[in-house]
Specification:
- With 434 residues, the chain is mainly β.
- It folds into 2 domains: 120 residues, Thrombin, subunit H; 260 residues, Methanol Dehydrogenase, Chain A (8 Propeller).
- It contains 3 helices and 30 strands.
- A hairpin with a 2-residue loop joins β3 and β4.
- The protein is globular and about 60 Å long.
- The N terminus is likely disordered.
């Protein structure tokens, strides 16, 4: 090679491509990937300049690692001072030496595969771990949040985050928010009620919990926000659970002390089932971006990307926080490309809609009304009377695959899905996996 290349190890895709044998690897602080999205803003933008168009052809395979699984791998590895920390199917956590590829330790939570395999709607994946101080934090498919020693994988504490009843599961990565670690869950396809919970970093003690949809009114509402949300539902919606699970996206603004949470699809999918009295309802807070007080979990504002979600258009896709100059003014913004096919820019202090434009083919809505923030649904969106070919389909225009933002170019890079699906409303029946 003509020159030594300083390289950051940042992605693990079954095998790692790094510079060849005479490469110098420097694991300085700015070469780490310490959080799920690199930073609390989830930018996923690496400032590394050592690899560029002129020398990328000089890279070669240094080592490859067999991960001994045929199941899906969706984790973003963390890189901390030369060590990679990542999760595998069935919530297994590994630490790997970045220089040699040697496994440093493996932690297996021992998930009961016979029981929990059927509760994961979309494979037994896990999207990664979190890091704080000398510890790694991991979630498990069966609902545990676990603190491990980063040095050897020894368990420090473990807490159960799920109720005894209901087909919940966890596939998402926890996030560190101040002195807390937060985690959501999945299971909207199986009729559960979504929520996000914060736990103390040191002890695992629960600090707060925010439910994303209201429960049975006879049991009382946990907060004023749940009472208001109940006004957007009808019938006995709680019999379906409600959905709104928080199975992926979080972001954190330390200055505003806000944690941003994306919520999932409604349960059941057809809005007429959830709203038998009216056939319609916004069904808060499904398919929403929520801004919660990081210390208390109190709802500060919400923006619903798909009111009355009828198509599995979740808003759990990644959120990126940045500052943009808009009409001559600096705005603190949140950007998201949820499943529904529109790319949103919001004021992250207030939730005000700044812009929303399609990033893939969309035929269920003609656009987003700038004055109300609501989608302008087309006749093609309604499949209650006859089957419709709707785009995007239930996989969305963008799913769990990570997007990123280049602040220099002011460009967002979105891995898109360009496919539709034939939707047809069946006669009302028991909940089934979607």
């Amino acid at each position: 090679m003509k020159s030594k290349i300083k390289q950051k190890l940042w992605r693990l895709l079954g095998s790692l491509l790094i510079a060849s044998s005479n490469t110098t690897l420097i694991f300085a602080e700015d070469l780490n990937w310490p959080k799920h999205g690199l930073d609390a803003q989830e930018s996923r933008f690496s400032p590394i300049r050592q690899i560029h168009a002129e020398n990328v052809s000089e890279l070669g395979l240094a080592w490859a690692k067999k991960l001994s699984t045929i199941r899906g791998i969706e984790a973003t590895p963390l890189v901390i001072d030369g060590t990679l920390y990542y999760s595998l199917p069935w919530s297994v956590v590994q630490a790997t030496d970045g220089i040699s590829g040697a496994t440093l330790w493996t932690w297996n939570p021992g998930v009961d595969k016979a029981v929990w395999g059927r509760k994961a709607c979309c494979d037994v994946v896990n999207r990664g771990v979190a890091h704080a101080g000398e510890h790694i934090f991991a979630s498990t498919l069966d609902g545990r949040l676990v603190c491990l020693k980063a040095s050897d994988g020894t368990q420090v504490w473990s807490t159960n985050t799920l109720p005894k009843d209901g087909d919940y599961s966890i596939t998402g990565a926890p996030r560190i928010i101040g002195n807390n670690v937060i985690i959501g869950n999945g299971g909207a396809e199986y009729g559960v009620r979504g929520y996000v919970t914060a736990y103390d970093l040191k002890t695992g003690e629960q600090r707060w919990r925010f439910y994303t949809v209201p429960g049975n009114p006879e049991e009382g509402f946990e907060s004023e926000s749940m009472a208001k949300a109940a006004e957007t539902w009808s019938g006995e919606w709680w019999e379906f659970g409600g959905g709104g699970t928080c199975w992926d996206a979080f972001a954190y603004d330390e200055e505003l002390n806000l944690v941003y949470v994306g919520t999932g699809n409604a349960s059941a999918w057809p809005r007429t089932w959830r709203n038998p009295d009216t056939g319609w309802g916004d069904n808060l807070y499904v398919s929403c971006i929520l801004a919660l007080d990081a210390e208390t979990g109190e709802l500060k504002w919400h923006y619903q990307t798909t009111p009355g979600d009828n198509w599995d258009y979740t808003a759990v896709q990644q959120m990126i926080l940045t500052t943009l100059e808009i009409e001559g003014k600096e705005r603190q913004v949140l950007m998201q490309a949820p499943k529904n096919g529109f790319f949103y820019v919001l004021d992250r202090a207030t939730g005000e809609l700044i812009s929303a434009e399609p990033y893939t083919e969309v035929n269920w809505a003609a656009g987003i009304d700038q004055s109300t923030g609501r989608p302008i649904e087309t006749p093609n969106a309604d499949y209650s009377r006859e089957p419709k070919d709707i785009k995007p389909g239930p996989l969305g225009g963008h799913n769990w695959q990570a997007m990123s933002y280049h602040p220099g170019y002011r460009l967002v890079y979105i891995p898109t899905i360009e496919t539709g699906m034939i939707y047809r409303e069946r006669d009302r029946h028991g909940l089934r996996p979607g």
